[in-house]
Write a sequence for this structure.
């Protein structure tokens, strides 16, 4: 099996042509409750039609955002409570991987942080005026209930830390942990993450590199591993296609919204992954990729899989 975890994908041309990096989950058999060969399972989408977020006082509830068990707020296919709406709004208001925002979230809770950033409550300690001005300028366009309804129409959902479907290994990122994950696809995100392997590499890879990546993706999938990659051209796309061709499981972690086909040439591939596997992102529906978002996306790929022991 591949060796060390490596999330530094060559999504923007990094790495040598034909090169790839891999990381694997725990070595032994499948975890308890995880089939030896992951297959799509019925998932649950968020309910549509909730009102816009309404901020009220209070820190995060016990178990919400801790990743330490228990169904977090709004778990399941039910309605959108305050915590879920606030986290959804924050994914549009802030950038992925911002450790300052993560610290504020840990200290204040999602609702109080959202109020403070948009000017409806005390500003977070140490917040610069430029950041607050930018957040307040964007506040008028926030519609987290609309975003939740949009992903629900795609058959998706928004998964928050502390919920049963949350992959707890992402908690290792500390304050850089995602605020939540927007997900398309029928499989259970946490169960698949328990037996996953990352296969990432250069976009401008050689034909040989693409061939090897496809063989690797297919071989891993046939042995019951979930192949995780970034859906980019080159090694990433080849690994996904190999897993799909083998009838196996694959998950794509995007640097944009789960409804944004990027790269454009992989629109059909992403649709196939959403049908047979999982497509996930930190950005809300409609979010567009940027160079920095590609780099930050890679930390989710790296943390999504367990290291070899």
């Amino acid at each position: 099996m591949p060796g060390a975890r490596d999330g530094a994908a060559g999504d923007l041309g990094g790495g040598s042509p034909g090169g790839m990096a891999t990381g694997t989950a725990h070595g032994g058999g499948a975890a308890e409750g995880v089939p030896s060969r992951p297959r799509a399972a019925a998932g649950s989408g968020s309910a549509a039609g909730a009102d816009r977020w309404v901020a009220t006082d209070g820190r995060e509830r016990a178990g919400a955002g801790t990743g330490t068990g228990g169904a977090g707020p709004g778990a399941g296919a039910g309605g959108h409570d305050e915590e879920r709406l606030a986290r959804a709004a924050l994914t549009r208001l802030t950038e992925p991987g911002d450790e300052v925002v993560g610290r504020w979230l840990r200290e204040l809770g999602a609702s109080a942080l959202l109020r403070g950033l948009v000017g409806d409550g005390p500003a977070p300690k140490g917040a610069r005026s430029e950041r607050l001005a930018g957040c307040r300028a964007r506040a008028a366009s926030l519609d987290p209930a609309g975003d939740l309804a949009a992903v629900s129409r795609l058959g998706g959902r928004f998964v928050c830390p502390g919920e049963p479907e949350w992959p707890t290994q992402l908690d290792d990122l500390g304050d850089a942990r995602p605020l939540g994950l927007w997900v398309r696809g029928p499989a259970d995100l946490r169960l698949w993450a328990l037996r996953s392997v990352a296969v990432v590499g250069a976009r401008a890879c050689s034909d040989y590199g693409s061939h090897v990546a496809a063989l690797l993706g297919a071989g891993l999938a046939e042995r019951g591993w979930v192949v995780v990659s970034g859906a980019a051209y080159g090694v990433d796309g080849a690994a996904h296609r190999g897993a799909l061709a083998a009838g196996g499981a694959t998950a794509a972690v995007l640097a944009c919204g789960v409804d944004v086909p990027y790269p454009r040439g992989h629109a059909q591939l992403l649709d196939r992954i959403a049908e047979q596997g999982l497509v996930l992102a930190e950005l809300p529906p409609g979010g567009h990729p940027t160079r920095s978002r590609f780099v930050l996306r890679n930390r989710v790929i790296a943390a999504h899989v367990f290291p070899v022991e």
User: Anything to note?
Assistant: The two ends are 12 Å apart (CA to CA). The chain is about 35% helix and 10% strand.
